[in-house]
Predict the 3D structure of the following.
Amino acid sequence: MQGLADGYFVIPYTIGNFLANEIRTSSINTSLPEFEQAENEVRDRINKLLSVKGNQSVESFHRRLGKIMWDYCGMSRNADGLSKARKMIQALREEFYRDVFVPGTDKEYNPEVEKALRVADFIELGELMCVDALTRNESCGGHFREEYQEEGGEAKRDDENYAFVSAWQFNGMDSDPILHKEELIFENVELKTRSYK
Amino acid sequence: MKVTLKIWRQSGNDKKGQFVEYKLDNVKKEMSFLEMLDVLNEQLIQKKEQPVAFEHDCREGICGTCNMVINGFPHGPQQGTTTCQLHMRHFKDGDTIWIEPFRAKAFPIIRDLVVDRAAFDRIIQAGGYVSVNTGQAQDANAIPIQKEIVSEAFDAAACIGCGACVAACPNASAMLFVSAKVSHLSMLPQGKVEAKKRAQAMVKQMDEEGFGRCSNVTACEAECPKGISVANIARLNREYLGSVFTSEVNA
Ligand code: SF4
Ligand code: FES
């Protein structure tokens, strides 16, 4: 027992320093096909955004996306609003790739390129948030589906059907994402309704 | 309110820069200074012009990136705040506002108001850390230390590495920044172990980066958005001198 306990408590404080210089990933070679592929993909994305040469700023798209999310995908949401928001975001995405204006080039310090890439991501993520909220037919935590509430307005959880974490797999921009369920398994506690009353 | 902006535009460190005038007539006094610049950039983009490059991240005074000199003051005329915490209500309708980058040899201009402050990162890499290669951190309460010392170390640790001290200094010295880091670490038990080595390494790196010497002007303290005291510089000098006379050969 003495040996076990000592090892357990002492080793993390002592051996680490000796191993730290041995266990390491040396710098990764950039002339690998995987690196080249990733680099090309990023370059293509940047060129695509720069070549749109439309009329609306990246910022204006960001704000419009924010407004949609605020109106329909806030803490309190419902199926009608979420379906509507999803369509609106899809239309916004189409408009973004048709009419965004990103000034400058990719050969200089250009914060607008950076912002455009980020807003492109936010548009995808915003849509995914709506999809996720739509598929979860219960109220739980920060997700209050107006259709699922108790008489007094408390959140109504559905542990029977939704005791899982949703992990979504990207499946191309124009197809629905694929749902992977990570089941929540409770062995020693039983699920109860949380009440602040 | 209406304002006239005179903004330094420069496309690169080796390019010639100049002030360019812009007029804005839809400024609200509730706007932060950076939001006012956002409005300007939106207008420039509408006209298919290059927006003014400026750095920003947290917009709440903690990241230290929103650096610019406003009407001659790093982070603007308001004391104890960063540019992002400055609001347009501190200006008057019809004001002309001059906006420039931080100027120092060790901070080359990347574009417009954006400068490269990697010199600060290299100073930190030279010694601004406590070497714990791996393993868990000690439980803080297991290390006895006086409250006064903790508070002083904490005050020094408030430095956000913005570089306003360098921009304010006529010698472009980085002493306030380096002294804040050295003080913060050397006052605490965890940092004491490497204190000598650290003071020497950080000062050496500071000199190599081309920052100027300190001549006790103390403009740095006046402009520092975090109120870092020049008392830290005295502490750094003491640490440094002490380390010169007593350090081990291989330190
Ligand atoms: S000492 Fe003050 S002015 Fe200098 S880098 Fe730190 S926070 Fe900025
Ligand atoms: S944007 Fe972070 S301190 Fe101003």
Remarks:
- DSSP finds nine helices and seven strands in chain B.
